[in-house]
Amino acid sequence: MKVNIKSVILLLMAAFFVLPLPAQEEKTIKRKVAISRFSNETQYAKGLFYDRENDPMRKQAMDILSSKLAASGKFILLERDDLDLLMAESSDSIRKVNADYIILGSITEFGRKAEGQQKLFSSTKTQTVEAGVSIRLVEVSTGLIIYSDEAKGFAETTSKTTLGIGGAAGFDATLSDKAISAAISQLVENIINKCMDKPWKSYILSAEDGTYIISGGAAQGIASGDVFHVYRKGKVVTNPQTGIDIELPGTKTGEVTVLSTLGDTPENEISLCSYEGEALDTEDLMNYYISDK
Length: 293
Fold this sequence. Notes:
Number of helices: 5
Largest sheet: 7 strands, antiparallel
Strand order of the largest sheet: 6-14-9-12-13-8-7
Shape: elongated
Order of helices and strands: HEHEHHEEEHEEEEEEEEE
Number of strands: 14
CATH class of the largest domain: Alpha Beta
Number of domains: 2
CATH topology of the largest domain: Rossmann fold
CATH architecture of the largest domain: 3-Layer(aba) Sandwich
Structural class: alpha+beta
Strand content: 35-45%
Distance between the termini: 59 Å
């Protein structure tokens, strides 16, 4: 009988070597983020008829931050007209916001200068803008600030003429955008890491005939077959040094499996789930929460 040497070698190689399976991408549940006030604390361009609500720099900063967070693909950005009012009230009011996190920002520094240099046959003109941005990230479920930082950004443009030939640089309005964007860029990665490192949480809204309704749906990346952990909330204790209430880690009671999702906007989306584990007190569902970790 003729033996195919090549086939034998391939079989031996297959016996000793196992090809690695492609790594599965970890499922990410998008966090709901609401951007609250983004104020301009500088005195730049604040004249007699200055309108705080229509401050162009404030709107620039909010748009830039929103665009960068949306581009990460990890967030659902929510708009709340009454967010400033809630932020001014107690932490209980903050928890009414249908979001995981609230971002508060401010432009703390802004300066523009123009410098020129005149030589015998040439001249240069440099416009420079420097901006400072401060960010605070508030966790809605606790009302605590979990991240706070400040960064500075710079932007400049230079024009040169030689023997009268060359571009004459006028006022460059885009430099303010670039400087603010540079400052925010330094903070965005930390914002993303802080939000994504913490477990995603949801809550049981209702239970009927063995079906449990939880908040969150398809827009956040939740799909049929997803399994999440159910925890009974931990005891709330008060830190005598700071006077701040701290919720101790919860106790796992079981798991929910997503059957289907409903809703047409991130604000009203829900998921229908089955549950396995120890019996839940359906009269006190607010004593439980859902987590992906």
